[in-house]
TrEMBL record:
It comes from the Bacteria. Residues 5-278 form the Aspartate/glutamate/uridylate kinase domain. It holds the Pfam family AA_kinase. This is Aspartokinase. InterPro entries: AceGlu_kinase-like_sf, ACT-like_dom_sf, ACT_Aspartokinase, Asp/Glu/Uridylate_kinase, Asp_kin_monofn, Asp_kinase, AsparK_Bifunc_asparK/hSer_DH, Aspartate_kinase_CS.
């Protein structure tokens, strides 16, 4: 194993010149960081998504000028913008052209071509920021390395092909001692078309690159000083977990802890790659190490929240003692490339939630009229929205007595729409009304963690 790290800086960490300079100083202070993976500057991906969905010419002009302003703010702080200005202008012109196309023919392929441009700009600007601090870095187009399938908006990396391309193009540069700056979130399909890995996918890119390069670890620099017992924006008294296991972090990410993209842990677990999470604004504040063997495995580890859940209840009286009803439902949903999350069955009905983290970068609605029509042929369908999933994450939750009583006592004044307990020994999920979600998270945290 080579002795170097892959560092990823998220959107707020590269939001402006000052934030980029803080990141550059982190890279400079750690000679082991040889590969830097960047997100788009904060806000840019959302603006690009809006453009990709097709807009009136007035709205397009407004969105384009917002994107331009974010770039201008950084360019204007550079000592010498001339080197990078023309490249940024070219990308802005390309964005304008794709945005116009999106108004007449908005496809997932076009969306990815557009949405990927934020990372292209931030990475070019960051190379110049480093240069002005006397650090020579080599910009790499990550699409020459990360190979994916053609599932636009939620592409799956092709690990073997990525390994081959990394060995041929990236590893030699690292071995020559170059500092690499590249993009997260994006890849290229076998036809050479740009793809994206899904929102928040830069964490996944960083872990994937660390794996193929055989780096010693992945450093995720973000806007919080580690992984907390719950989202510190919801519960200010949440505290940092210094060391946790891959499986705990994977459960947290899966159930909504946005600080890590859920797929980040795949390469980490496969290759036993420690993941560090820390704050780029305050690197001295310390952070969380996610490893195979953490210091402790407490019964209650964290509370995660995932908003915007859709509950489908499908009933069909002839389901009683019938076979194949569930298979039919799941197949229909799978045909639409949607992942089912929670499932509960009763005598003549099945209730299931749909997971929006499985949806495309462009954020298109999960439930299409076509899917609903197909489901209606199998059963009577009821759709509930305005729901959130609150998940308690821990260890051996099934073994200890009184866990469920503790939770129910804690939440006695809230209505819980659905509960899932037993599928995993690491989590208990509760579906609640979104307007009560923050209160439920606060109450659970207060009673179980404080
Ligand atoms: P980046 O742009 O760096 O990828 P994200 O916004 O994707 O950053 O992720 C960081 C955010 O994750 C934090 O600001 C915080 O609000 C949220 N978050 C959710 N759950 C947790 C948690 N358990 N610990 C820390 N942060 C969390
Ligand atoms: N820029 C992308 C997003 O906003 C990817 C990322 O930041 O990880 O989703
Ligand atoms: Mg993120």
């Amino acid at each position: 194993m080579l002795n170097f790290s892959v560092a990823k800086f998220g959107g707020t960490s590269v939001a402006n010149h000052e934030a980029m300079t803080a990141c550059a100083n982190i890279v400079i202070a750690d000679p082991d960081t040889r590969v830097v993976v960047l997100s788009a500057s904060a806000g840019v991906t959302n603006l690009l998504v809006a453009l990709a969905n097709g807009q009136s010419s007035e709205e397009r002009i407004r969105l384009l000028s917002e994107i331009r302003q974010i770039q201008e703010n950084i360019l204007s702080q550079l000592k010498d913008e001339s080197q990078v200005r023309s490249e940024i202008e070219k990308i802005l012109a390309h964005i304008a052209q794709l945005a116009e196309q999106a108004t007449t023919n908005s496809t997932e392929e076009l969306s990815d071509a557009l949405i990927s441009q934020g990372e292209m700009m931030s990475s070019l600007l960051f190379v110049q920021v480093l240069k002005e601090l006397n650090v020579d870095a080599q910009w790499v187009d990550v699409r020459t390395v990360v190979a994916t399938d053609s599932h636009f908006g939620k592409a799956m990396p092709n690990d073997e092909q990525t390994q081959i391309q990394s060995d041929a193009l990236l590893a030699p540069l690292v071995q020559q001692g170059k500092l690499i700056v590249t993009q997260g979130f994006i890849g290229r399909d076998p036809q050479g078309r740009t793809t994206t890995l899904g929102r928040g996918g830069s964490d996944y890119s960083a872990a994937l690159l660390a794996e193929v390069l055989k780096a010693k670890n992945v450093l995720i620099w973000t806007d919080v000083a580690g992984i907390y017992t719950t989202d510190p924006r919801i519960v200010p008294t949440a505290w940092r977990i210094d060391s946790m296991s891959f499986s705990e972090a994977a459960e947290m990410a899966t159930f909504g802890a946005k600080v890590l993209h859920p797929s980040t842990l795949l390469p980490a677990v496969r290759s036993n790659l420690p993941v560090y999470v820390g704050s780029s604004k305050d690197p001295q504040a310390g952070g969380t190490w996610v490893t195979r063997e953490p210091q402790q495995r407490p019964q209650f580890r964290a509370v995660a929240l995932r908003r915007d859940q859709t509950l489908l209840t499908l009933s069909n009286p002839s389901m009683v003692h019938a076979q194949g009803f569930l298979a039919q439902i799941f197949q229909t949903i799978a045909d639409h490339k949607i992942s089912v999350d929670m499932v509960i069955t009763s005598e003549a009905s099945v209730a299931l939630t749909l997971d929006k983290t499985g949806s495309a970068s462009s954020g298109t609605e999960l439930l299409s009229t076509e899917l609903l029509a197909q489901l209606n042929e199998i059963a009577q369908v009821k759709v509930d929205t305005g729901l959130s999933l609150v998940t308690l994450i821990g260890n051996e939750l099934h073994k200890s007595e009184g866990v469920v009583k503790t939770i129910f006592d804690t939440l006695e004044s809230y209505s819980i729409r659905m509960i899932s307990y037993g599928a995993s020994t690491n989590s208990i999920c509760m579906l609640v009304n979104s307007n009560q979600a923050n209160a439920v998270v606060n109450t659970l945290h207060k009673n179980l963690f404080e």
